[in-house]
Amino acid sequence: MTAGIAAILFFQTVVSVGMNVRIMPVTGLTLPFVSYGGSSLVTLFIAIGVVQSVLMRHRKQDFG
């Protein structure tokens, strides 16, 4: 699951950079955590929360 979220972030970043250096066609894809877009920003924050939750549960730390 975390690899998929990392792939989504990587893909969005590569496409956005490619559009800015004019090697890819311009699309409506947002730049992760930078572009103004309410649903995109909320979705990325939820995805990062899922990654943090997976990492926290994987490390078996004691809380409390």
Write the layout of secondary structure elements.
Elements: H1 2-20, H2 38-59
List keywords for this structure.
64 residues; elongated; mainly alpha
- Chain-averaged pLDDT: 87
Shape: elongated
Note the beta-strand portion. under 5%
How many domains would you count in the coordinates? 1
The helix/strand series, from N terminus to C terminus, equals HH
As residue ranges, the low-confidence spans are none
Helix share, percent: 55-70%
Strand count, sense and closure of the main sheet?
none
Radius of gyration: 15 Å
Number of strand elements? 0
Total of helices: 2
Global structural class: mainly alpha
Q: Measure the end-to-end span.
A: 27 Å
Characterise the protein shown here.
This protein is mainly α. It has one domain. It is built from two helices and no strands. The two termini are 27 Å apart.
Short description:
The protein is mainly α.
